[in-house]
Each structure stands twice: as C-alpha cells, then as structure tokens.
Description:
Elements: H1 8-29, E1 31-33, E2 44-48, H2 55-60, E3 67-72, H3 80-89, E4 92-94, H4 101-112, E5 116-119, H5 137-145, E6 149-155, H6 157-160, E7 173-181, H7 183-186, H8 191-201, E8 228-229, E9 233-234, E10 237-240, E11 243-246, E12 252-254, H9 269-281, H10 285-288, E13 294-305, E14 308-321, E15 325-330, E16 333-338, E17 342-348, E18 352-357, E19 362-366, H11 374-386
Parallel strand pairs: 1-7, 2-5, 2-6, 3-4, 3-5
Antiparallel strand pairs: 6-7, 8-9, 10-11, 11-12, 13-14, 13-19, 14-15, 15-16, 17-18, 18-19
Amino acid sequence: MTKKWVKLRHSVVFGLLRPFFRVTMKKQYGFYCKRYKLPKGKPYLILSNHQAKSDQFLISLIFNRPLYFVARDDLFSMGFASKLIKYLVAPIPKNKVAKDIQTIRDSMQVAKEGGCIGLFPEGNLTFSGTTEYIAPSIVKYIKMLKIPVLFVNIKGGYGVRPRWANKPRKGDMYGAVVREMSYEEYKDYPNDEFYELITKELYVDDRTLNKKFLSKERAEYMECCIYVCPKCGLTHFVSKGDTMTCTKCGYSAVYGEDLKFSSGEFETVKDWYDYQKEFVKSFDYEAVGDEPLFTDNIRVMKDEIFHKRKYRVSKRTTVKMYVDRLEIIDDYGSVTISLNDISAMAVCGRNKLEISDNERNNYFLIPTPRFNALKYVQFFYHYKYAQIADADKEEFLGL
C-alpha cells in the first residue's frame, strides 16, 4: 500500500515558518511579491524560472498553501538533515543527470492527493541572467498530471545573487503569478505550440530591469561561469572586486552595478555566455590533438550506485578533460572514462560537477571556490551531439 504523501504536518510547518522566511527573504534579497490564494484541496502545478538558490522559499511566499518541490536527489543524501527535510516538507526527488520515472509517479501521487507541486523546468539556476533551456519533455509531464498550471516569474534574482557569486548584492527581487491555465485550456494544445507557450511565459531577462545592484565585489567568482577569452580562447580567469582578468593574455572586463560591463568586448554576461557556447560548437579539436583541453585540481567523491550513497573521498585529485575522454588521478590511482561511456554531466549549485557513467556510477567533483564546472558540461554535450547524425537538430550544451 502506497503511503500518503500530502500530510497535515506539512501545512502546519508551512504556516509556522512562513513569517520567518518572509522577514528573512526581505532582508537578504529585498524580496516582495504579489500573493496568490490557492483554493483548499485542489491540486496545482506551479512552474517558475530559476534565478537564485533560495527560489523555492521565495515562491512559497506567494502562496497560501505548501508546495511540494521537485528537488535534486543529492538533497536526500545528507543523513539526519535529509530525513528532517523529508519529514517537514516532503520534496519530490529527481536525479539531476538521469531520467527518473519515479519522479513522475511521485508527482502524480501528490496531485491525486490534492497537493501543489513546485517545479523549475530549467532544472538549473541561470548562469546568464535570462531563462535558459527548458526540455520539451515538460509538455508530456504537464499533460500527464492533468491539473491546472500556474506560471510564476521571479525577477531580480540574477542581480541580487547570481549563480556564480559568493555573496548577495544589495537590491530587490519580485515574484508573481503571470498566467493560469486549466487542464481544459491546454489539453488539446499541439505539443510544439504548448512548449513555445511555456518557454514564453517563463522567460525573464534581468538585463532589462534598469536597476542597480550594489556590491564592491560584484565580479568576484565570475570565473565559475566564464572560461573563454575573446582574445586568446580557452583560459583561466581571475576575478577581484569589479574586474575579470585573463591569466594568459591579460584581457580584462569591468562589471557594473547595472549588470553590464563598462569595458571589454561584451555588454552583459549573457552576451559572453552565448559567445562561449558558439566557441564550443565551432571548436577546432584537431588543433588540440591529444593534449588536455583543460586541467583542474579538485576533490572527488565517488558514489557507486544512484540513491545508495557510498562515498569514496579523495583529498588530492587532478582532473583532465581531453577531446574524447576524462582522466581522474586521485589518492586511489587513476581512472580514464571515455566520453562515450558517460551518460550525463551536470553542474550542481555554483560549481560542483556531477558525472554519471553507463555503469550507473556517479562522480561528484568537489571543487575549490573558483573552479569552473561549466566548461566540462558544455564540451561534453558538444561531443555527445557531434555523434548524432542530425544536422538540423539544435545543439543543447547541458545548461
């Protein structure tokens, strides 16, 4: 017999914690919102763009009922803390790098019990300041649930706390429901048209806000996002204060309080981010030969099987990415993984890299604060798409 998912204690916890988070989110992020009253006992699917790591708390403040968020499954591997989270708010687990039919089953159970589901269809915090790629499979997921959908826009999160940053800036964020659709409204939509509607309703571009976000360290840790120099190509950057500097050629760019560069080749991080993607897609692999594309010193945790957290931790690890393989040298020896044997890669949080291979092994690369995991993911997915004989297929680089 399936255990009940939606429980009274979740509403009690929501009611008790909501005033605390309202004050905290206002203080930390300057968050304000237009509230939306959900009818009691009716299931809803709440979809939102994803800007800041606290978005789930921010979105919850919009509504008068608890939301059951679809959350990455490493949230469930923290021992007692995970058990407490599961007991208090019962999130729906989703493996970040693999398809998980159980997520759909759990979502359907929550909906059947009259609960409200919260989901970020991007599956990732934005690195660029705009809503990024949303998988077309979101259409199938929505139509399987057969419940009303609410579209939420969060704005200002990239200005207050960009994904690559270490500290928040002084500014404000805003959240509101921008559209509601009943099942009757969307059930007969052609899938491609419904997908276009979803991406349109969730699209947010913080570059258009015309606001200032104050910080003396506003470019700090941007090298977690930027790894291509417009002058010399693949490189390492160092950030200090408001300036990003290439370690190879000395190229620099100054990042302003208006989310724009006051010097350099690009106007915004989005422009630079898109330039990087085009750089990866047109990269000349033959010129590299058998030399590493890049090398980093980090720590690695290895998880033998999904959902069964048996970690093996290495304190001293070197990771090298080649055109066709990944090499990990750690305290236990050396392992080489062909890119053909990797099923998926993902960036977790700011810059933790998660790798899954075809043998259902998981590797968690635990980085130094300024490590760039994004480059591994984007080069891997470019390699993966290069194996697909479909010239008309739009290349998705994992984020």
